[in-house]
Amino acid sequence: MSAIDTKEESRAKFTEMKEGTAEDWAIIGGEYREFAKDLPDRVLDHLRLLDGDFGGFPVDRLEHSLQTATRAHRDGRSEQYVVMALLHDIGDTLGSYNHPEVAAAILKPFVTEELHWICQNHGAFQGYYYFHHLGMDRNLRDKYAGNPYYDACAEFCEKYDQAAFDPEYDSEPLEFFEPMVRRVMAQPLASIYKSALEDEAA
What we know:
This protein has helices at about 5-10, 20-35, 40-50, 60-75, 80-85, 100-105, 115-125, 150-160, 175-185, 195-200. It is mainly alpha-helical.
């Protein structure tokens, strides 16, 4: 039997999902679990795309990400927080008009509701430091006044995000954060697919 035949045998047989059998979905589920294990590698590879991308800033987007995460780590923040800080701008490449939401979608299964909210809304809060120079409302973040995570998001931007453009800062390299990314993304805290992963692990 050729490798091609073997490959085809490991695929589901349906042409429409409504025709799928338990056997089909056992095949797909097994492939899914294997694919999901490599998520940290894909995320880290995508983060590396920010290397050398300055966009006019004093440091490139990867250094900004590393600097943000390093500042959070050195301030004693949790691993979830540090990973959020590291990945908060990972959406810049594919979400040029909504990068916070892209990063937040990647992080959502693995972090607390508060950290997800910070990531998802940091764009509006970061705007406090520069929107007025672009003819925009620097107080756009005020529409979130009263939200329980407002102060935490403002603090993230003040202490770590807006401060992370120093070419002289001694950031940790990406390799330093890789184990944290792998630990945080080892198992989702919340996902409609969480039980499928847990069934396999059990």
